[in-house]
Design goal:
This protein has 146 residues and is of the alpha/beta class. The protein has 4 helices and 8 strands; from the N terminus they run ββββαββαβαβα. It starts with a strand and ends with a helix.
Length: 146
Amino acid sequence: MRVRCSARLLVINPDNRVLLFQFVHSNDALAGKLYWATPGGGVEVGESFEEAAIRELREETGILRDNVGRCVAEKTFEMILPCGETVLAKERFYRVKFAEDDINTDGWTENEKSVIAGHHWWGLNELIETVETVYPANIQEILADY
C-alpha cells in the first residue's frame, strides 16, 4: 500500500475558532460524502512536512508564513482517495494563529474548487456538539491541548 504524507493546518482566528472546509464529493470515488476538514494537502517530492504546511497554507487560505511552528499532532490511518486508491495516510498537524477571519481562495486548484463547498470558523463547543462529520475526528482533543 502506498504511503501518502500530508500536512494539515489548524488555523485559529482571534476568537479561538478553527477554520474548516466543507467537502462535498459528487463525481469521484467518494461520491455522496460530505464532511468538514482542515486545510492542508500532500507533501510533494523533496518537500518536508513543514514546507508542505507553509505551501498549503498559502495555496488554500492566502495566509503567508515563513514558519508554521512545530507539529502538534500526528495521525496514521488507511483512507480512500477521491480517485479510489486506498493509501496509508500519515498526517502531521500544525497550529497557526491568524489575526483575521477572511481567507483568500485564489490559489485553489480546479479540484479544490470542485469539492470544497465553503468554509466555517468552528468554536470548540460547536465541534463537540456537531453531528456532522469532521476530520480529524479527535480535533476537539487536539485543540484543547493547545
